[in-house]
Design a protein that fits this description.
Helix content of chain A is 38%, strand content 15%. Chain A has 9 helices and 10 strands. With 525 residues, chain B is an all-alpha fold. Chain B folds into 2 domains: 236 residues, Cytochrome c oxidase-like, subunit I domain (Cytochrome C Oxidase, Chain A, Up-down Bundle), CATH 1.20.210.10; 252 residues, Cytochrome c oxidase-like, subunit I domain (Cytochrome C Oxidase, Chain A). Helices cover 67% and strands 0% of the residues of chain B. Chain B contains 18 helices and no strands. The chains are: A alpha+beta (370), B mainly alpha (525), C mainly alpha (282). Chains in contact: A-B, A-C, B-C. At the A-B interface, helix 1, helix 2, helix 3, strand 7 and strand 8 of A face helix 3, helix 6, helix 11, helix 12 and helix 13 of B. The structure holds heme-A (2 copies), dinuclear copper ion and copper (II) ion. Dinuclear copper ion binds next to loops of chain A.
């Protein structure tokens, strides 16, 4: 027992790195947008109301437990059924609830007001990374960032995840390409997904919105302070659900314009997704750029599953497993590899691959498995 | 009412013994026992999976499992606990207690009763073996959301068929329970004289009949989307992944009340017995239970506040959900008022019931916090929700099940259980339970998502505490197992009515209750 | 076997466990079948065979018990409650599919064509009904209401009348009319099934209407197929009842099995009317 206690003590004192900048460990993170602030105070309010009711009700219960027990000689009374009391304890909670519902309703209406944004960004969830398309800007930001596309994948190295290297400060909450937004502007986020449902969530903004494949949903936020804000995918989306963070860098308008100008000229970087290698602690570097090279694509990505037959994937070289598949015809195979089939993710999980690259990879695999 | 008679005595000689007794039994007590042992086995299975989860989450970084296997652990833990452990345990109680409490000879359909039970082992086998098929078990979460579930391998199909079979079992079981209650009560026992446990089960059975088929429909559409090229949940074909969620939660929300209403019933039997004072408001308890059940059909989308529904939808579902606090409050106040000025003793059943009351209510309050849409947008799919539902499911349903087990063990076995062990079990459970799950509130608020195998370092300390608590909680259940086995094996002889304040019909029978319950129906005044 | 008084509690029975074994085979078999595992179809067939054996055995026992007067009036009431709630559970099963139809037609399809949001992903998609979906290129024609479906409506409505006629005859103890009414009902049921099979073939070959035709195809086949399955079950049950009638079973005052089947038949009838209006007509 004492060992256990000391372990607990150790646990509580250890590890104080804090990735959601300057944030409580016990409560909601510090709000950085008007909506988040409303939510924060709403939560505080409701929490305290609940605490008060809880203390009153269970205070009564504990008084009763200590005073009305047989061992202290208390004799049982026999009262029951009292309409007045019953009406009171139905009506009072009802009134309290109305008191809670009022501010909540106001906040809901504010949250839902996505009209007149300064900037609209489409966030697309992929298995497993985020893609951001800056749509046509309006008002003061018209034309500034139109057409920029950014892909953001986890930047934490596999070695840290698999305990081969010490963990960095923003372990699991860091990406290669951050989403850059200007401060003090109303930013509308459209969410959608390419494969399964993801959710775009940045706690400090009070924003969480499911990204549903085939549908567009929207939400908005406005950041007041420049800084880096971190969040994560908040809907189970398969194996790497825990590894698709969201990082937003809020900068002032001038800096945003600079950034946009730079990124508009450079071709949108097509990044390969980070794969938590299925077979252990090594990272699976994925390559996409360059000439169409089937072997390279295969080695970089497809081999993660097809190399060892993970998740039911037909193993490359296993003639038996491939015979019937090959018999479907090359077109079908390529089609399946591009669109995904059952557990096979579309384009092996990397939407940045071109169809030609996938086709080359399929050809390469078929070659080895005939 | 016609004489309610057991059956012909000459038949007793043909009673099979050994294994066939259990395979072919039509006796409600045997079947109840089967249900209870089955659910305990599933509780251990689901619990071990939970320990798998907690072991991986002990510290940041990936140590034990691959991420996809972690998802399978989470999914199977949820499915097995909900469908394998909690629900069958309550049906086991229904089987044992309902005929005893309403003065019937047995269940209305004794043979079908056996079928309801024996459908469960194949379903459990489907679930458990799915770990061993290519691709492993489904890792789409116990909610089996499309389209992730459409992507899964064969394990998903096994889970779908398991759900179908368990659904059939629940529907048969519920029909049986409703019929027994409506048609087999002893003369004089009007509906409003039934013990509350019977009432809560009557209402629960209706919920089951209404929603299990809907779940079956949901997973059937999943199956056709997976294998027959339909597009129910695929935008390309005009379907919608959110449609799945609507259908699932139309089942899912009533389902959580299916797991709590019988618990309310048990607690409503136990508290008056140990307070030696009648339940404060019997009628209002019945009405409150019914209100909860009815409201449960119009709140389902509170699980979907972040899918992006219109403000009107969010408001409606928020208000409706909040409303449930009123009838639940009525119940809580009733229990406290029953204890007030009683003459209480605190044997193990009472300890668990009071523990239930205290800790379940915390879960209720966090449920209310979730119901406030803007707050839920922050905490949906975080450990806050995990904390909420373990407070209501473990400290709610499971503690009530423990309470009921200790309460009726003397009637079932004829022996008193070991009070010391029972109390030890309670205190260990209570402490470790809170150690495990209380810190999850902090984790969730601070931003740790659920269903992740790894997490940012700032969450490390609370996760470590939760993992330690989980192992402690698991070990504490060994005390329970030991205590029950000890009680079955022997111990102090139990009188017909071991609890001074208990007053329902089962206590008029000797302990252990005879194989055929009420051969001649008692007359209830 | 048992005196007419008192509530009949059956002896230990092997049928439930046989049924469970059947379902275990079917569950594993179907899952394997669908994932192209060789033994799947065999397991499924074995499961179905065991299930059929169980049904014969179990229902045979029940029929015997009923005919030997084991069931008291109280047991009869139990049967009535249970059949009602069983049918209610079936209603909820259908409700899930009707719900899907409503949702797609009224919510998701218009949403996908929404000018503000849907257009971003599916620029060319127009809302409307019947429709397959924005990602489906192939065209199909919807199933008209006034051909086979209308005839089928008439068939089922008539069969509702004939089964009532048979019931009326049973209560009058007019066995000839009873058998005749039942036989007619079965005939109508079988005609319905045949026409529906024909309709499916026609749909698949001439209208290019298949399960994969998006919202319309999926809901059309799911609803009509699930209903067709119920008609088939109902017809089989009616056939069993007819055989029992021919064997002289049932008395004017005691014939619950007959009534249960006719309730079921009426339920299937009502569902069809809903289908006719919501799937074919509107
Ligand atoms: C036994 C099971 C059980 C029970 C009883 C409840 C009870 C409640 N639940 Fe919970 N819930 C679950 C099981 C349960 N829940 C599960 C399993 C999930 C997660 C599923 C998943 O996603 O995997 C979930 C998730 C869940 C969510 C979705 C969270 C999310 O995913 O974002 C919400 C949101 O509204 C919610 C609300 C409630 C409410 C309002 C109650 C109410 O019934 C509580 C009412 C009780 C009280 C309020 C306390 C007592 C009352 C008083 C003392 C009176 C005075 C009080 C006031 C005036 C406030 N629950
Ligand atoms: C219905 C009831 C129920 C019960 C009783 C429990 C019991 C427990 N649950 Fe949970 N849980 C759910 C229902 C339940 N759960 C659901 C529905 C989900 C959601 C799934 C999803 O997201 O899809 C979930 C999810 C869930 C998660 C989140 C996983 C994730 O998001 O990735 C976690 C994490 O800690 C957890 C932990 C536990 C623990 C530690 C217990 C403990 O109480 C278990 C204790 C029991 C035992 C340990 C076994 C018995 C004892 C022995 C066998 C003795 C031997 C023991 C030792 C050697 C230590 N559960
Ligand atoms: Cu993407 Cu979770
Ligand atoms: Cu709910």
């Amino acid at each position: 027992m004492s060992k256990l206690l000391s372990m607990i003590a150790l646990a509580t004192s250890a590890l104080a790195t804090n990735a959601y900048a300057a944030t409580s460990k016990y409560g909601l993170p510090d709000p950085e947008s008007p909506i988040a602030r409303e939510i924060y105070s709403l939560h505080t309010l409701i929490l305290w109301i609940c605490v008060v009711i809880f203390v009153l009700v269970f205070g009564m219960m504990f008084i009763s437990i200590f005073k009305h027990r047989k061992s202290v000689g208390h004799k049982a009374a026999h009262f029951h059924e009292n309409t007045t009391v019953e009406v009171i304890w139905t009506v009072i909670p009802f009134v309290i609830l109305m008191g809670m519902a009022y501010p909540a309703t106001k906040t809901i209406i504010d949250m839902k007001d996505t009209s007149n944004p300064d900037l609209t960004i489409k966030a697309t969830g992929y298995q497993w990374k985020w893609g951001y398309d800056y749509l046509k800007g309006e008002g003061s930001l018209a034309g500034v960032s139109d057409g920029i596309t950014v892909y953001a994948s986890l930047a934490t190295p596999m070695d840290q995840i698999y305990e081969n290297a010490p963990k960095s400060e923003n372990y699991l909450l860091e990406v290669d390409n951050e989403l850059v937004v200007p401060i003090n502007k109303k930013i509308r986020i459209l969410t959608t997904a390419a494969d399964v449902i993801h959710a775009w969530w940045v706690p400090a903004f009070g924003v969480k919105q499911d990204a549903i494949p085939g549908f567009i949903r929207d939400t908005w936020f406005l950041v007041e302070k420049p800084g880096v804000y971190r969040g994560q995918c908040a809907e189970l989306c398969g194996k790497e659900h825990g590894f698709m963070p969201i990082v937003v860098r809020a900068v002032d308008e001038a800096e945003f314009k600079d950034w946009a100008a730079k990124n508009k000229s450079a071709a949108a970087p097509a990044d390969a997704p980070m794969q938590v290698a299925a077979a252990g602690g090594t990272s699976a570097p994925a390559a996409a750029a360059g000439p169409v090279d089937g072997k390279k694509t295969y080695d970089g990505l497809c081999a993660a599953c097809h190399g060892a037959g993970i998740a039911g994937a037909p193993k490359v070289g296993d003639k038996g497993a491939w015979a019937t598949r090959i018999a479907q015809g090359e077109g079908t195979l390529v089609d399946h590899a591009i669109k995904g089939i059952r557990t096979m993710p579309a384009k092996g999980g990397n939407p940045a691959l071109s169809d030609a690259e996938v086709k080359a990879a399929v050809d390469h695999m078929v070659e080895l498995s005939k | 009412m016609e004489a309610v008679h057991g059956h012909d005595h000459s038949h007793d000689h043909h009673h099979p013994t050994g294994l066939t007794r259990w395979l072919m039994t039509t006796n409600h007590k045997d079947i109840g026992t089967l249900y209870l042992w089955f659910s305990f086995a599933m509780f251990i299975t689901g619990g071990l999976l939970a320990l798998g989860i907690r072991a991986e989450l002990f510290k940041p970084g990936m140590q034990l499992w691959q991420p996809e296997f972690f998802n399978q652990l989470t999914t199977m833990h949820g499915l097995i606990m909900v469908f394998g452990a909690i629900m069958p345990a309550f049906v086991g109680f229904a089987n044992w207690q309902i005929p005893l409490m309403i003065g019937a000879s047995d269940m209305a359909f004794a043979r079908m009763n056996n079928f309801s039970f024996w459908l469960l082992p194949p379903a459990a086998a489907l679930l458990v073996t799915s770990f061993f098929v290519p691709g492993g078990a489904t890792g789409a979460g116990w909610t089996l959301y499309a389209p992730l579930s459409v992507q899964q391998g064969m394990g998903m199909d096994l889970a779908i068929f398991a759900v179908h079979i368990m659904g059939a079992s629940s529907i048969m079981g519920s029909i049986n329970i409703i019929t027994t209650i409506l048609n087999m009560r002893a003369p004089g026992m009007t509906l409003m004289k039934m013990p509350l446990f019977v009432w809560t089960w009557l209402i629960t059975a209706y919920l089951l009949i209404a929603v299990m088929p809907v779940l079956a429909g949901a997973v059937t559409m999943l199956l056709t989307d997976r294998h027959f090229d339909t597009h129910f949940f695929n935008a390309a074909g005009g379907g919608d992944p959110v449609l799945y969620q609507h259908v699932f939660w139309f089942f899912g929300h009533p389902e959580v009340y299916i797991m709590i209403l019988p618990a309310f019933g048990i607690v409503s039997q136990v508290i008056p017995a140990f307070a030696r004072k009648p339940l404060f408001g019997y009628a209002s308890m019945v009405y409150a239970t019914a209100s909860i059940a009815i409201l449960s059909f119009i709140v389902w989308a509170h699980h979907m506040f972040v899918v992006g529904m219109p403000a009107a939808g969010q408001l409606f579902f928020m208000y409706a959900t909040m409303l449930i606090a009123v009838p639940t409050g009525v119940k809580v106040f009733n229990w406290v008022a029953t204890m007030w000025k009683g003459s209480m003793t605190f044997e193990t059943p009472m300890l668990f019931s009071v523990g239930f009351l205290f800790v379940f209510s915390m879960g209720g309050f966090t449920g209310l916090v979730c119901a406030i849409t803007p707050i839920d947008i922050q905490i949906q799919d975080t450990y806050y929700v995990v904390a909420h539902f373990h407070y209501v499911l473990v400290a709610g349903s499971l503690f009530a099940l423990f309470s009921g087990t200790y309460f009726w063990l003397p009637k079932w076995t004829g022996h008193m259980y070991d009070e010391k062990l029972g109390k030890l079990h309670f205190w260990c459970s209570m402490i470790f339970f809170n150690l495990t799950f209380f810190v999850m509130h902090f984790l969730g608020l601070a931003g740790m998502p659920r269903r992740v195998p790894d997490y940012a370092t700032q969450f490390a300390d609370f996760n470590m505490i939760a993992s330690i608590g989980a192992f402690g909680f698991g070990l504490s259940q060994l005390i329970f197992l030991w205590c029950v086995i000890k009680c079955i094996k022997g111990g102090e002889k139990a009188p017909a009515k071991p609890w001074e304040g208990a007053d329902s019909l089962e206590w008029t029978l000797p302990s252990p209750a005879p194989y055929h319950s009420f051969e001649t129906p008692p007359i209830v005044k | 076997m048992q005196a007419a008084h008192g509530y009949y509690i059956p002896q230990p029975s092997k049928w439930p466990i046989v049924g469970s074994i059947a379902l275990a085979f079917m569950g594993f078999g179907s899952a394997m079948f669908m994932n192209d595992v060789g033994a799947g179809p065999w397991l499924l067939c074995i499961g179905l065979a065991i299930l059929a054996y169980m049904m014969f055995g179990w229902f045979g026992t029940v029929a015997r018990e009923s005919e030997t007067g084991t069931y008291s009036p109280q047991v009869d009431i139990s049967f009535r409650w249970s059949m009602s709630w069983f049918i209610f559970s079936e209603v909820m099963f259908f409700a899930a599919f009707f719900g899907a139809l409503f949702y797609m037609r009224a919510l998701s399809v218009p949403d996908l064509a929404d000018a503000d949001t849907g257009a971003l992903l599916w620029p060319d998609f127009k809302s409307g009904w019947p429709v397959s979906g924005p990602g489906i290129e192939e065209k199909f024609s919807p199933m008209g209401a006034w051909g086979i479906p209308a005839i089928n409506t008439l068939l089922l409505l008539t069969s509702g009348i004939t089964v009532t006629w048979a019931h009326w005859a049973l209560k009058k103890n007019d066995r000839t009319q009873l058998n005749l009414g039942l036989a007619l009902t079965i005939l109508l049921g079988i005609s319905f099934i045949c026409l529906q099979v024909y309709e499916y073939v026609h749909a698949a070959h001439e209208l290019n209407l298949t399960l994969s035709q998006g919202a319309y195809g999926a809901t059309f086949y799911m609803l009509t197929g699930f209903h067709g399955f119920h008609v088939t079950m109902g017809t089989i049950m009616l056939i069993v009842i007819l055989f029992r009638c021919l064997a002289g079973h049932f008395k004017p005052e005691n014939h619950f099995a007959f009534e249960a089947v006719s309730w079921y038949w009426h339920f299937v009838d009502v569902v069809w009317l809903l289908l006719f209006v919501l799937v074919y007509w509107l």
